[in-house]
Amino acid sequence: MHKGDYRGSFHGYVQAVVKRHNLDIDFSSAADMADKYDEKDMNAIVCMRAMCAGVIESLIILDRWMYVSENLPGDYVGVHCLFDEKISPRNWAIVAARSS
Fold first, then answer.
1. For 32-80, what is each residue's pLDDT tens digit?
2. CA–CA distance, 88 with 94 (Å, rounded to integer)
3. 22 phi and psi, to 5 degrees?
């Protein structure tokens, strides 16, 4: 999308997307509903999402680590931090090595 497609309201943005992609879908009612939300309400939702992001990322890494560990019994499976989490919350790598 281009910067000019967003004209101050979500409804205008949705119309631009539908027009640009030649979609035969009416998103106008959803867009009108989104325009009714106050910015304070949206800020609360965004803050809650940000607060939960780290926990959810950790659970995903734990789930993937457990999956690899279960499928490589007796082999090394570890989780290593690649870089500072301030750069990105997706700073972890699952490393697995088969024993010979």
1. 666 666 666 778 888 888 888 888 988 999 999 999 999 999 899 999 9
2. 16
3. 50, 45
Q: At which residue do the structure tokens 């009612």 appear?
A: 29
Strand pairing partners for 77? 96
DSSP string across 10-76: HHHHHHHHHHHTT-----HHHHHHHHHS-HHHHHHHHHHHHHHHHHHHHHHHHHHHHHHHHHSTTSE
pTM value? 0.56
Helix (H/G/I), strand (E/B), else coil: 22: coil
How remote is the C-alpha of 43 from its chain's centroid? 17
Q: Which residues contact residue 13 at a Cβ distance below 8 angstroms, ignoring those fewer than 6 apart?
A: 1, 5, 6, 7, 31
Query: Torsions phi, psi of 91, nearest 5?
Result: -105, 15
Tokens 């304070």 sit at which residue? 40
Residue 26: CB partners within 8 Å, gap ≥ 6? none
